[in-house]
Amino acid sequence: MSIKKTIRVSIFLLLIVIIVGACKKENQTRIQAGWSAKYPTSIPFNIRNNEKNLGNLVFNHSFEAGKVYYEEGSIKSYVTNGWKKVGHNIKWVNSDNGDFNFSDVYEGNHSIKIERNKADETETTGEGVISDYIKVIPGNYSLKLFLKLEDIHPNQSRIGTKMYDAVNIRLHFFDKNKIEIRGTEYDAFSDKKIDNTFKSLTLSNFWKLDKFEWGEVHGKTANYPYFDGDITDDARYVKIFIGLKGTGKMWIDNVDFRYTDENFTMLERFKPYFDSSYLANDLVFPQPKQLIKNNQIQYINQEAGQYPIIVIPQNPGKNILKSALELKELFSSLCNDTSENLYNKIEIVKNINVNEISEKQFIVSISKSKLYKTFKSNLPDSIISKHEGAYYIIQSKEKDNLVFINGVNDQAIKNALTTFSQLFDSKNSLYLSADIIDYPDFHERALLLHNFNGNLKDFNSKLKLLNKFKFNNIYFKWYGNEHENHFPFSSFNELKNGNNLTKYSLLIDLDKLKINNVDLHNNFKSKGLNDVSLKSILFSSDSSISNTNLQFDLIKQVNSFNNYLNKKNIPIKLEFLPPWKSLDIIDKGYGRAEIFYYDFNKKMSEDISIYWTGGTYYSNKIDNAECYRIKEITGTSPILFDNSLLINNSQFNDESIGNYYAGKIRTLSIFEPYNLQTFDTFYEQSKERKILLNTKDLTELYTIRLLTASNYYWNTSSYMADKSLWIVLNKLYGRDNAIKLIYFNDAYFGLKEVCQRIKIDGLQYKNLRIGKLFEEDLRKFYTELELSIRNEVLLSELKCLKDEALKMYDDLNSSIE
Q1: Cα–Cα dist 199/566, whole Å
Q2: Which residues, listed in sequence order, are joined to residue 358 by a DSSP beta bridge?
Q3: Tens digit of pLDDT for each residue in 219-252?
């Protein structure tokens, strides 16, 4: 053998050794004994990040790939890649085949159909499909799939059993040798063991299912506060089984199984944003439905005497005129010159000949001005006419310096101007032009406020901020004569939010305030609640759950007040948050909730809207099955009373829970963004297209969180929780301070986790070393924020958090020493 050939062979063998070694190392890193879903940061970041970047781990998730085997011209059998059949009554749907149609698939050309006419009571699995092995690491995973169901009955209906696992969705766990292991998990919140392989929770409490059209179903074991989605720590592989134990027809499509963001700290999630660069038109908030960037335009040139011109209709209404004046003030403020001389040079006109205006002079047409009528044929009015609350901001194709702003009503135009105001680079006097067509998913985006600890000026500033982020209805919890102990105003006439189109409403707890129709309405009037300013009254109650007679009295009381409002022609919308407000409470009522809603629908006026809170009071996930079920029970599509922002950190209030899940503390956040997990068309579930966000105190930190919700409420399908928070932090405090706040959060929860571990393990060297680093970072980033942030309220809140964490750490050190 020649020397050259020997060298080639040696290099080849060396490469094989390196590759095999690397594979072996990879396999070793995936089976570390200390890794746990309860301690995400025990797993190296690159391993977790790689797992997340894999996206959907299900091979052939939509059943598009497979092979059919024929015998004498007819189908004998088939194979779907990545899946195996369990049972015989299973078909591989091909919508191009004459035996099926497009309604048999959710997406693409294929799905799985199961049809069973009989089912034994003793069955343990049923018939369905099971995936091939899916490699996993310890952590939190989400499971979602699309189902269509028809005439489903449980296999044990004879003995009065509900569905339970008649629709059988399971996650089977396997160890490194692919030997199946038990999926039993300890639920520290209920202090009992539960079956973590079971993923059919949202379908389990139906008595039967007549017809459930294609909808997204979340594979769920238990509701909040359980950390649903955590897999067994010993599992290195999983298999997904989706099948039917009961009778009926079932279609399956688009199975999605992936590693979630719950496995990462906030700092790990946000670091990719630190090096990103955004222009003003990248940071428009809430995110528009359609935004196409155009060329940048200089909107003012004082040296050349070129100032913006605002064009309005011949007969503008008061809201359009007010919007024009606000736009004039905006241009003045963008020039960093609030002098009356500059303000007067920015004209508001009704007629203009654009041919006589310099091509460099910036012109903005609001609503249906005379100028708008000239260019109307090139504007998208036909598009926005199809959507409630729609507007557009369009740069003229004929004249770059001309921008048209129009909407379907005054509120839409107001929202358009709010968006328009975000498209400027004031440092360089540039308008970062973008063609925008936009409309909200939820037509009414409401907040419930319980109290405010501050003066009227600060409160009005907060209301103005909420309005800027396009919340359009503010509910106040009503305390009767004690109202002024909770809010810094005695009359609603004192409130100024910067938009006279924003509405106010009330929530009245009937368990605490017994109502008298006349006295209650007179009390409203004395507080400046005239019939125009007050949009809705929401009654709520919990006390009648255990007493059927009280339920009937409650219905009578609410109906009586509604009749009073109608008789007096008072245009206030009446709403109701009933005692049976969530599916888990309904299930514990053993039929009493169904009796309540039957009586409610029989005696209550149809114009009274009702609310629900989801599968549980604190719902962080809602799927199509839960929406279908609440509609079936209530006879209507209720509005969501959204408690999801109240969830943050509350799982760790109990010391024993904190000990069991100590490793998850690091993943928490003091300003965790809104992250209710639903489905793309969730906003269509309420016939009013309305949602009400329940809040805590309007602290600065909590305000940051609720502002992210406005992005979801406006544009549900495009919502990205982390990006929304990043934009909010940038808008409120600037990019540099946003980064410091993320680091402060990491140090705060890092130190709190160390404190919890000291309580469990004592003053080990590792705890002390890590604790010292977090202590230094916490002090450092707070000091830097003190020097760079002017918001004294935010700094005060951060200081309280810092001092609390440091005191806890110091106390533990001294007590154990």
Answers
A1: 47
A2: none
A3: 999 999 999 999 999 999 999 999 999 999 999 9
